[in-house]
């Protein structure tokens, strides 16, 4: 009798150890307010144009990023938390505009245009995310670059220093009406 009870319990234990078999549902994306402060640099998120990101940690904390480049960097840096419950990026296929990236999608589901002339919220080369492959292709045709998936974004594209000639004067990023350093 004990053997018949032990077999179902062993099967249940093995199923619980299977990756993804008991994964909790990811928390949904949240809309940033003026109180959303960026993880790197401690700036007001909504003051930055272009695609943004948010990472939800397993402890419930939401980390904000003014550029998708920073989201990917977070995942690559060994000193950052690996207890990630969900990652979201702006969906530029459905966003109202570059200045108002108002829709979110899971970071791993996006098609990214890398190597285009687009610059993110911090004036750096930006992986531009799209939920629709044809929208990503159209952006790449117009602005240059290649379409890749999350895991195919090269680490050196994210962690390298700014391209030659990229203006990184931090003052320009805080004065949005000058129109420099964006897109």
From TrEMBL:
Q: Where is the signal peptide?
A: 1-21
InterPro entries for this protein: N2O_reductase_NosL
Report keywords, A-Z: Lipoprotein, Signal
One Pfam family recorded for the sequence = NosL
Q: Which PANTHER family match?
A: HTH-TYPE TRANSCRIPTIONAL REPRESSOR YCNK (PTHR41247:SF1)
Question: What's the protein name?
Answer: Nitrous oxide reductase maturation protein, outer-membrane lipoprotein NosL
Organism classification, top ranks? Bacteria, Pseudomonadati, Pseudomonadota, Alphaproteobacteria, Rhodospirillales
């Amino acid at each position: 009798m004990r053997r018949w009870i032990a077999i179902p319990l062993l099967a249940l234990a093995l199923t619980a150890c299977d990756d993804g078999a008991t994964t909790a549902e990811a928390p949904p994306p949240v809309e940033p307010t003026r109180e959303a402060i960026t993880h790197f640099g401690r700036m007001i998120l909504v003051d930055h144009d272009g695609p943004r990101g948010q990472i939800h940690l397993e402890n419930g904390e939401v980390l904000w990023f003014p550029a998708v480049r920073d989201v990917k960097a977070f995942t690559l840096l060994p000193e950052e938390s690996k207890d990630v419950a969900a990652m979201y990026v702006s969906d530029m296929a459905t966003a109202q505009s570059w200045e108002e990236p108002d829709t979110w999608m899971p970071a791993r589901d996006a098609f990214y245009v890398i190597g285009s002339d687009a610059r993110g919220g911090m004036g750096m080369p930006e992986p531009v995310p799209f939920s629709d492959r044809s929208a990503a292709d159209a952006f790449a045709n117009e602005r240059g670059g290649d379409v890749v998936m999350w895991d195919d974004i090269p680490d050196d594209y994210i962690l390298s220093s700014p391209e030659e000639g990229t203006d990184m004067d931090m003052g320009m990023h805080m004065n949005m009406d000058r129109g420099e350093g964006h897109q």
